[in-house]
Amino acid sequence: MFKRNIWKLTLSLFVVLWALSSLIPLTDRPFPDYIRAEAKVEPGEFAQLLDEAAARVQSDDPGRPKTVFVALKSIANERNIDLSRHFPQVRIESTLRNVEKRNTILLDHLLKESKGRLQLGLDLKGGVAFTLEVDESAMAQSTESVREEKLSKAIEIIGNRINGLGVAEPIIRPIGDSRIEVQLAGVNTRDNPDIVESVKKPARLDFRLVNPFLRPETTPVGEIPPGYEILSLEHESATGETTVEEVFVKRIPEMTGEGISTSYPVMDEFGRYRIILRFTSDGSKQFAAVTKEIAGYTQQLIQRTGNPDARARLAIVLDGKLYSAPGVEKEINSDSAEISGSFSQREAFDLANVLNNPLDLPLSIQEQYEVGPSLAADSIASGQKAFLIGIGLTAVAIVAFYSAGGFFAVVAMSLNVLIILGVMASLGATLSMPGIAGIVLTIGMSVDSNILIFERIREELRLGKSLPAALEAGFEKAFSAIIDGNLTTLITAGIMIALGNGPVKGFGVTLAIGIFSTMFSALVISRLFLSMAVQGGFMKKFHMLPVLQDTNYDFLKYAKPAFIAAWILVAVSVTSAIVQRDSIYGIDFTGGDQITLEFADKVDISEVTATINTAGFSDINLSYTEEIGGDGEVLRIGSPFDSGKAIADLLAAAHPDAGFKLKSQTTIGPSVGAEIQANAAWAIFWSLLLILVYVAFRFEMGYGVGAVVATIHDVLLTIGIFVLCGRQFNASMVAAILLVAGYSINDTIVVFDRIREELALNPNSTLRNLINRALNLTLSRTVMTGGTTLITALALFLFAGGQVNDIALTLIIGVIVGTFSSLFIACPVFFWWHKGDRKHVESGHDAKPVYEWTASSKASE
Question: What predicted TM-score, i.e. pTM, was given to this entire model?
Answer without folding.
Answer: 0.66
